[in-house]
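Ticket closed. Logging final result for NlpC/P60 domain-containing protein.
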Amino acid sequence: MSASVQAKPTTPHVTKFAHKYVSVRYVWGGSTPRGFDCSGFTKYCFQRFGIRLPRASWEQGKMGTPVKKEKARPGDLIFFRGKINKGSQIQHVGIITDVDRGRIRFIHSITNKGVRYDWLSVSYYQKRMLGIRRVLKV
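Final structure:
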């Protein structure tokens, strides 16, 4: 992959680039196509377009502008708490790829599955969602 940076990244650029990595294995602390963890994946995808994100998901949760679920769009970051954590600490992040009549699909790197798509409507994710943030300027 070329490491060149585009002048004005757009949603299709970021989501199309992220799609290239579907099925790449999960590696804790991974941030390359050899293996990604969740925040390593988002950082890698956005960095390709000149947008620097912090390494940790909880730090990425401070970037950009908060967005209500009803206003979400492709390219936004979506954040979740972990399986055990019942509080409001961010422990997982993905990139929204599709919004269709209120249904939100996102791509992320998850333990034992690697990079894949999931729907927010799945109760596992619905219960754990903490917020959405927009880092792409439109």
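Residues 1-7 have pLDDT under 50 and may be disordered. No further action required.
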